[in-house]
């Protein structure tokens, strides 16, 4: 009943304007503008089961007020839900309705009080949550009646609340109009905090991301099928209303579609047959970071995976490897058949489910002996995500996040609790001694959940473990713009929330290389051959020539020493024999000793002309014999060194003195007057030079070998008479 005639008069004057005012109720809401676009049907309400499930979600996530300020009391008993609420489409509708009610909780409560529904009516407290969610839908439908389908089952609680709201229709519309005028807003959407409004705006324009299941189809076949369905490939899908798609720059197997095409895409067989899977890009970035760190047989441990599509994507990327993927945290074994059925439909075969939580996994678990990379996706505030409903449903996050999103962010206490959990999980991951890398990924924009956690874990990691410590590594993903390069200067990969993508943070930690564990190429090839990866390729045994080279290389110092010693002994023997011959045949000696001077390369010293009657008085001969060998008359057993293949061995220079030479002049006096004192210098190169006549020795050359001519630079230079 109305309390005064003035109020009745006010309502009569404004009744004609109520429909116009209510039409502006959510006109600024991007979600509503999308739904009310040309060609789309008007809202007719939800099934009863959606209202019940939305009321239960709101009941558990609503903003609680102090008792002195709480004018509406909510009960603690949840409403009984039907089996239909387990359907994915029903859950999505229920979460969206509950989230909208959470955003406008204060405004909706004000409208209920201002319209005198409270406290004039006597409704059980446990139905107040249902009243809130149904009131939001009622004003969103411009206070029009809900259209019911003929085969839909009615729920008594929903009918009771619906009849109540219809009876207060006029009062509710007037209260909404007064609320809009009070805040000087075109719609109640503009009363929301700015952060919530910006988030709603991004969610309405954010492109759709879908990855290709290469276990079932190739990218070329996907492009061909999309083209047959009228989709054209472009470089960017921004501000394009046509049926187009683009390939992501960071992930080669991820496609991008405009947001308004989702309903059309879901009707294509590519999505029905799990050949294309919708998922947020941040999760694709995480699995591609892991892929870049893997070897052929490395196993992966995934922690807090959330969406099973993330696990499936990791499995598809490692389909050609021998890697195994361990997923921990699946506490209910009743889900195993459903998960295995899902993975079978998607063609994933290398997934193993662990029912232990990550913090309870033993460090020496025999199943995890080959785990080399750990993918850590901790629970976070998710404030880099534009659509919280999709994030919660896809990542199986707690519904408490809806309250944080509705208020523009978590409280400081909630943020501190999340950061502590993230640090504990990262520190526990570092204790797995066989793991060589950790990929830490969040959808948060808060440094307290990102850089601060990683730096703290690196600073306080346990150095008593007998393994190399972790260090921060640069991003393994391609940086496709100057902004990304600037954001990654401190070795963290960041993507800020924008009109094309959600926010993302990725950090890659790798162990420092142990110097004692360097692996040679031969070890890598042997390991690959043992695994059968080099079938048909024979790891060649070392050829005889290589063995010979190796043997000669090993024995080179001894050979050169023996050769030098043999050469010196040969020279000493030659000088001794030459001295004896020169006494009997001076003329012949003179003629024949001039020839070796042109064919031998020696490093010599000055030789003096002496009388042949005293050959033993030459002081240089004993010196050379003493220096070269203690037993000059004993013939060495081996004068020829083994010639290395295609290799020249430089010899050390030695000093020799030639025997006195008798020239055929009648008087030595005349010789001295016409010739200067002969100082001859020779260079000794090697034992391969052939000495002509009786000076040649068969041990110098091998059979069949031709002597090498001396280079011009090594020819002896001596003055001619």
UniProtKB/TrEMBL annotation:
Pfam families: Methyltr_RsmB-F (PF01189), NSUN5_fdxn-like (PF21148). Residues 198-512 form the SAM-dependent MTase RsmB/NOP-type domain. InterPro entries: MeTrfase_RsmB-F_NOP2_cat (IPR049560), MeTrfase_RsmB-F_NOP2_dom (IPR001678), NSUN5_7_fdxn-like (IPR049561), NSUN7 (IPR042620), SAM-dependent_MTases_sf (IPR029063). Residues 542-553 have a biased composition (Basic residues). The keyword Cytoplasm does not apply. Signal peptide: none annotated. One of its GO terms (molecular function) is methyltransferase activity. The keyword RNA-binding applies. Belongs to the class I-like SAM-binding methyltransferase superfamily. RsmB/NOP family. This is NOP2/Sun RNA methyltransferase family member 7. It comes from Bos indicus x Bos taurus (Hybrid cattle).
């Amino acid at each position: 009943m109305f309390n005064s005639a003035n109020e009745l008069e006010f309502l009569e004057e404004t009744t004609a304007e109520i429909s116009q005012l209510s039409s502006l109720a959510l006109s600024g809401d991007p979600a509503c503008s999308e739904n009310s676009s040309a060609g789309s049907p008007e809202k007719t309400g939800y099934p009863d089961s959606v209202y019940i499930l939305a009321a239960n979600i709101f009941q558990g996530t609503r903003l609680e007020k102090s008792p002195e300020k709480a004018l509406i009391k909510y009960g603690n008993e949840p409403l009984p839900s039907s089996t239909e609420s387990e359907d994915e489409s029903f859950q999505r509708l229920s979460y969206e309705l509950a989230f909208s009610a959470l955003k406008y909780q204060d405004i909706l409560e004000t409208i209920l009080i201002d319209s005198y529904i409270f406290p004039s009516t006597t409704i059980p407290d446990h139905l107040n949550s249902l009243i809130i969610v149904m009131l939001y839908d009622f004003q969103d439908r411009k206070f029009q009646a809900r259209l019911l389908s003929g085969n839909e089952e009615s729920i008594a609680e929903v009918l009771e609340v619906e009849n109540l709201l219809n009876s207060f229709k006029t009062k509710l519309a007037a209260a909404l109009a007064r609320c809009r005028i009070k805040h000087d807003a075109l719609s109640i959407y503009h009363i929301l905090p700015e952060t919530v409004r910006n988030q709603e705006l991004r969610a309405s324009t954010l492109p759709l991301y879908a990855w290709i299941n290469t276990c079932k189809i190739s990218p070329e076949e996907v492009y061909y099928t999309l083209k047959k369905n009228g989709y054209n490939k472009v470089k960017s899908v921004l501000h394009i209303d046509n049926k187009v798609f683009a390939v992501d720059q960071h992930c080669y197997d991820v496609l991008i579609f405009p947001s308004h095409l989702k309903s059309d895409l879901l009707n294509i067989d590519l999505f029905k047959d799990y050949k294309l899977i919708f998922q947020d890009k941040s999760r694709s970035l995480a699995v591609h970071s892991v892929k870049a760190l893997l070897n052929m047989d490395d196993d992966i441990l995934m922690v807090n995976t959330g969406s099973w599509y993330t696990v499936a994507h990791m499995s598809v990327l490692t389909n050609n490897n021998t890697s195994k993927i361990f997923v921990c945290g699946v506490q209910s074994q009743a889900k195993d058949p459903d998960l295995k059925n899902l993975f079978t439909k998607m063609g994933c075969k290398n997934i193993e489910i662990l029912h232990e939580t990550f913090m309870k996994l033993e460090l020496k678990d025999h199943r995890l002996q080959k785990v080399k990379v750990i993918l850590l996706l901790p629970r976070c505030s998710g404030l880099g995500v534009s659509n919280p409903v999709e994030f919660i449903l896809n990542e199986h996050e707690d519904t408490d996040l809806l309250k944080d999103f509705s208020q523009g962010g978590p409280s400081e206490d909630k943020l501190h609790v999340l950061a502590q959990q993230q640090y504990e999980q990262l520190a526990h991951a570092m204790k797995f001694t066989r793991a060589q890398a950790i990929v830490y990924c969040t959808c948060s924009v808060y440094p307290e959940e990102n850089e601060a956690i990683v730096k703290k874990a690196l600073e306080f990691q346990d150095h008593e473990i007998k393994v190399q410590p972790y260090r921060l590594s640069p991003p393994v993903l391609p940086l496709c713009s100057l902004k990304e390069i600037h954001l990654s200067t401190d070795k963290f990969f960041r993507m800020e929330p924008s009109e094309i993508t959600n926010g993302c943070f990725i950090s890659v930690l790798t162990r420092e290389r142990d110097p004692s564990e360097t692996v040679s190429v031969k070890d890598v090839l042997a390991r690959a051959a043992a695994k059968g990866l080099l079938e048909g390729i024979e790891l060649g045994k070392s050829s005889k020539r290589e063995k010979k080279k190796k043997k000669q290389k090993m024995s080179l110092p001894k050979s050169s020493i023996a050769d030098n010693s043999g050469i010196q002994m040969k020279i000493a023997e030659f000088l001794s024999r030459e001295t004896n011959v020169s006494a009997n045949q001076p003329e012949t000696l003179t003629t024949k000793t001039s020839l070796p001077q042109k064919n031998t390369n020696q490093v010599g010293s000055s030789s003096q002309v002496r009388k042949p009657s005293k050959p033993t008085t030459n002081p240089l001969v004993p010196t050379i014999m003493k220096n070269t060998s203690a037993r000059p008359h004993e013939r060495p057993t081996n004068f020829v060194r083994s010639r290395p293949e295609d290799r020249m061995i430089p010899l050390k220079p030695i000093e020799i003195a030639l025997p006195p030479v008798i020239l055929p002049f009648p008087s030595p006096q005349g010789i001295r007057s016409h010739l200067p004192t002969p100082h001859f210098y020779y260079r000794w190169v090697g034992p391969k030079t052939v000495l002509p006549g009786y000076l040649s020795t068969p041990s110098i050359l091998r059979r069949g070998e031709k002597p090498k001519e001396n280079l011009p630079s090594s020819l002896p230079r001596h003055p001619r008479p």
